Amino acid sequence: MKNANVANIKTNVNGLFEHWVALTQPLHKLTDAEARILIEFLKKRHMFSNNVNDDDVVDRLLFSTETRREIMVSLGHKMGTFQNYLTSMRIKGVILDNKINSKLIPNFENESDNFKLIYNFIIK
Residue by residue, what is the 3-state secondary structure of the chain? Predict the structure, then answer.
């Protein structure tokens, strides 16, 4: 196939989110610490969406005080530092109205055994 390259990456679901954030870095331009926070939010979001079908409810759960505190503690951040990272992520457009920017959420179905991320380079 011309004008295409394919690379297969073997991973588990948690690894998928890590690879996703790394491969989409040119889109979000997060620091390493911010990227780790996004990975944790994506993991939690995936877990919540397995049990809840309403995206608004998932987002409310995801950005609840309890969930944010869990992520903060799991990454070893203090409250002020964590809030500064979230503010930076809002400025960068990763978090919009207490939701993860939909462009940065992998469209992954639970029962699937693969996921494709396609880059389309428009050459002018």
Answer: CCCCCCCCCCCCHHHHHHHHHHHCHHHHCCCHHHHHHHHHHHHHHHHHHHHCCCHHHHHHHHCCHHHHHHHHHHHCCCHHHHHHHHHHHHHCCCEECCEECHHHCCCCCCCCCCCCCCCCCCCC
